[in-house]
Amino acid sequence: MTVPLLSHRRLPVSAALIAALAGVLAPATSASAAPAAIRTQAPAPDMAGIVAALESAMANGAPGAMARYSGPEGVRGRAVGVRDRESGAAMDTRARFRIGSVSKTFSSVVLLQLVDEGRLKLDAPVNTYLEGLLPDDRITVRHLLTHRSGLADYTNAMFEQTVPGFEAVRNRVFSYQELVDLSLAEPRTTEPGAAYAYSNANFVVVGMLIEKLTGRPVADAYQRRIIKPLGLRDTAYVHPDTRIKGTHVRGYLHPDESGAPLVDSTEQTVSWAQSAGAVISSPADLNSFTGALMRGRLLSPQTLEAMTTVTPTDGTNTRFYGLGLRRYDLSCGTRVYGHTGTVQGFYTYAFSTRDGRRSLSALANTSNHGAANTALGNTLEAAFCGKKALPAPAARSTAPSGTAAHVPLPAERDLPERH
Ligand code: HEL
Description:
The protein has helices spanning 15-22, 47-59, 103-116, 126-129, 141-145, 155-158, 162-169, 176-184, 200-214, 218-230, 283-294, 301-307, 370-385, 393-396; strands at residues 64-71, 74-81, 97-98, 236-237, 252-253, 263-264, 279-281, 311-312, 319-321, 326-329, 335-343, 346-353, 359-364, 366-367.
């Protein structure tokens, strides 16, 4: 080992329904299982398709968007619109931005390295390491990493009103314990292990485990175990400092009120998320990270296998979750692994193929506007599935010219939007 259509996370009442739809009791599928349609040769990325997806994100309310593809064909970046509405600076594929929950994959890697080092067991109760923290000894480390602990997501209430919720925490510094207390003040959403129910609280506890086991702040662990070994020059865990250093993208949050002006949300502590979402990175670094992870540079074969062993997150049979890692099954049969992120003003995708040879990261500098996120998600199809065949003649008469036959799924769902 080298040491260094719908998540429904916001609707706990529907967790049982979703679990049933998703066939939660079905065995987890392993990354090594044969895909339904095995491609012998990877298609070249459809860069025009990527640009179309970025432009569609802009047409759906993002001031700018960008994507970077890295693969055997080389590295290709595309950017549209602006990274700063005030200065008019163009979107730039070298710029840094907030990656939101893609941070969960960083946290998961650190924790799994500790498993590799024999310092932690995936199926041990969390309370073994953090005595008395959780009110149920049955909640295991694996339950945290798979979003199956039942710990409520305190951010649902926190951001029920988007802009007031954000402004109330923008400069606030929480302790991990305060965030756990917010979660525990709410009823738990599922029995431990019973169902997938996405919650930021899980990865707050992951951060606590990292700090307890290493005796150091999580920032040190990311730095020593991931950022330095991979030479990620634009990546940092930034908390509680509110700024993004260097050339960066400014983020613009959509208020709930339709037509209200965008709120510049660039500067914030992200203390409400910390190890669940406070990493800053760049497209090049994200591709290096997901690619290296999939190529086995960060974890032993055993823990990487555990990380990529997934269960469905919805009833589409195309979206899955492993250990701090999503798997999306694309229309061409290609499976990609990585994570999505939503933090005020920034939508992110960071995914790689299982062999780590092809990676794609994409960013739109807005949020609370799901249509922009869905549009951005189409970069994945274009990058990994290549050019789409034209629709069959019968379909062609009704579809606009050039429309792909594949109907994309909506982006991971955030809190309900009111506009
Ligand atoms: S939400 C998700 C995404 N994850 C989760 C996490 C992350 N981000 C958050 O929990 C942010 C919540 C507030 C975001 C805010 C906005 O759009 O900026 N929305 C509101 O305030 C709505 N009222 C599951 C989508 C993920 O893809 O994993 O990142």
